[in-house]
Amino acid sequence: MSRAEFSKKTKREALKRSKMKCEAVGKMYGLERGQRCSSPLGFGVEFDHIVLDANSKDDSLENCAAVCIRCHRWKTAKHDIPMAAKTVRMQDKHLGIKSKGRGFQKPANTKFNWSTGRYERIDA
Ligand SMILES: [Zn+2]
After folding, report:
1. 47: nearest Cα among 82, 23, 74
2. What's the gap in Å between 88 CA and the centre of ligand 1?
3. Could you tell me the CA-to-CA distances from 85 to 23, 29, 56, 120 in Å, in that order?
4. Centre of ligand 1 from the C-alpha of residue 29, in Å
């Protein structure tokens, strides 16, 4: 999946806004509701789309969070990937693509004959 990238300007602005502290907030990043991570970003910074860009092509500063690597990994694994999978499933459903049936189904109006090992028609 190709991801839209933030511009250098947006990243610079986000870093400035963050004051070099992780901007991740809340459950989406594995934190308590309303709690901010605030880890120093000096060890590495990732720029995260707050709203996943599969659903929104928003690369504005408002949708850009300067987060520490730990928070970014957490959100990618626990939030973005399940969300993206759900989006794909919903698109499939919308397009009428159904998931495969659950295994083998007995043909209608037949019964299994154990002596021949085959299904045989039941004559009504
Ligand atoms: Zn963090």
Report:
1. 23
2. 28
3. 25, 18, 15, 42
4. 8
Burial of 3 (0-12, 13-18, 19+ CB in 10 A): exposed
**Where are the chain's structural domains?**
8-94
Token pair recorded at residue 83:
């969300």
For residue range 70-120, list pLDDT tens digits in order. Answer: 999 999 898 888 888 888 888 888 888 776 655 666 677 888 888 888 888
Question: What spacing in Å lies between the alpha carbon of 104 and ligand 1's midpoint?
Answer: 47
pTM for the whole structure:
0.65
24 CA from centroid of ligand 1 (Å): 5
Please give the backbone phi and psi of residue 120, each rounded to the nearest 5 degrees, phi first: -125, 145
Neighbours of 66 (CB within 10 A): 25
